[in-house]
Design a protein that fits this description.
mainly alpha; 12 helices
Amino acid sequence: MKRTDRVDACQLSNDAIENMSTEELLQTVLAYPFMIDLYAFDTYRAGFEHVYREFPALAKLTKRADFGAVLIDFYRNIPVENAYSVSANANYQNIRSLSIIEILIAQEEVTGGLDEAEVNLLIQISEEKNLERKRNLEVNCGNLTTFHNALQENPDLPLPVQ
């Protein structure tokens, strides 16, 4: 099967998107099998642009009225893993989700429609997550700078580079 066939098979119908809550749609977007393409390009920005073009559900998600609140709640609740939690549960999904969310948050298409209070909350949460990762470098050293690097690629974004 060609890649285009696999990508087509992963698309969501407009009816399916409209029938999902924003939280369900966010979870579905994060589970998109080709979301890994964020990492397949020279920059996170280029990877994001590719995924954004290829998977219209992502654009539809960001246009939801409650997207900011759902994104903030979801981001806040992704645990930063430590060596014990990873070895005990073999759960690397949280590491992946956190990295992907932070790449997405660093994109104008994702955060451009949020209000100032929502952006400030995302900044606060990112600072807390970063401190937690620094305390658990044995697990998080690989994604410690993902958000910072993604922000640097988008200098016009109203989020401060940490």
